[in-house]
Amino acid sequence: MKKIIVNGPCKLKGEVIISGAKNAAVAILPATLLINGKCHLENVPNISDIRAYYEILESLGAKIDYISDNEVIIDNSNVNSAIASYELTSKFRASYYLLGALLGKFDKVQISLPGGCNLGARPIDQHIKAFEKLGATVEVKNGNVYASRTNRLKGNNIFLDVVSVGATINAILAATLADGNTIIENCAKEPHVVDLANFLNSMGANIKGAGTDTIKITGVDTLTQKSSYSIIPDQIEAGTFMVAAAATCGDVVIKNCIPKHLEPITSKLIEAGASIEEGNSSIRVKMSDRPKAFSIKTMPYPGFPTDMQPQMCVLLAICNGTGIIVESIWESRFQYTDELAKMGADISAHGSTAIIKGVDKLYNAPVYSHDLRAGAAMVIAGLIAEGKTEVYNIEHILRGYENIVEKFKKLGANIEYIDDEALQGDKNA
Ligand code: EPZ
């Protein structure tokens, strides 16, 4: 059993360096399949979702040269299969990007339905709509997605009924090598959508409008490697450390981030009473008093990100007043509030709304990580609670946060990572 133990309370102080963006990397890795030849990627986060993607690409025939923990050269010229196994694709959500990428190369693609955080229903109807608009036939059967095409995909107009990061990304991946022009409307505008488009354009694609709600793609015949590409910093990891700094009344400089991407979080933390200093690629967060109450409604970018919702709930749990969170993206993203209640938080969550009445302090408890971001929120709660908090099911956290224990330790937290199985193994040795 792996767990993280946090002894609180503490005040975080110092500097933390943000890793590459998980949600950009999980789109760019499958995008390398569209390129004939080698792809040199830098600032790739060393997290389990990425390692799972390396495994999938190698299972398809890719050759990967691991230059360092965060730098790889991927050669997909010998990729000879378009069937990715359940064992590999079921570990995380973003494996479904293989559909868009492989349809650009193969006539038939088979991917198991993806796994990922349990946030309620996670439909893929808009992804399927995009592929069918481009001329593919898609069938979902026996837990697999079967996509096929008789000829090269053909550019078309795609209107997404829902603003969907995944569907926007999959549509871009499928349309990049299609024959003719594609217009995708009602697109997601997240930074990771833009990073994917920038990566593909750096390899010779013709994608305009990423970051707006309309993306225009002129299909090209091939993509070839140009220079290396560096993944953008992780908006949500940066936001997580900003909230941890504020929640612990600390003083932290978050380095290697893009302040523009963090504006919705910055403005809320200022409302809560934090002082924020922005640099070109850094943000300093200082908090000296108990946070003031505020309210949030999660929205697609540039609105407040749903992936920061659990972390902000911890800040509200100890605020001076009552805050409200409305979760408008996912149908069940408040499961973690039961864990915070074990620590003394006063939260009533029903449907898409949570009302959080600030309490003076939280107390240690064994808590469970319901999903990736809820797990990070449990760590933040442990940093501010009195006593030793044990965070379980941390495989979720390790999917999306590189060296989270070491990074918090460097900021002065009394935190450690325990792997009972490894300890047991040592004892038996
Ligand atoms: C991406 O998930 C992120 N994951 C999620 O982050 C994030 O919460 C989400 O975008 C919203 O920002 C990755 O990028 C790997 P969506 P995705 O399609 O693409 C509905 C994390 O913590 N929808 O934008 O799966 C859907 O039900 C993870 O890093 C359809 O109805 O999310 C939801 O209500 C957790 N039909 C809304 O759209 C579809 O075909 C937004 O979902 C697709 C989505």
SS element count, helices: 15
**CATH second-level architecture of the largest domain:** Alpha-beta prism
Taking the sheet with the most strands, its summary is: 4 strands, mixed
Can you list the strand order of the major beta sheet?
24-25-1-26
Query: The CATH topology of the largest domain, please?
Result: UDP-n-acetylglucosamine1-carboxyvinyl-transferase, Chain
- What would CATH call the homologous superfamily of the largest domain? Enolpyruvate transferase domain
Shape: globular
The chain-level structural class is alpha/beta
Overall average pLDDT: 95
- CATH C-level of the largest domain: Alpha Beta
pLDDT < 50 runs, ≥5 residues: none
Count of distinct structural domains: 2
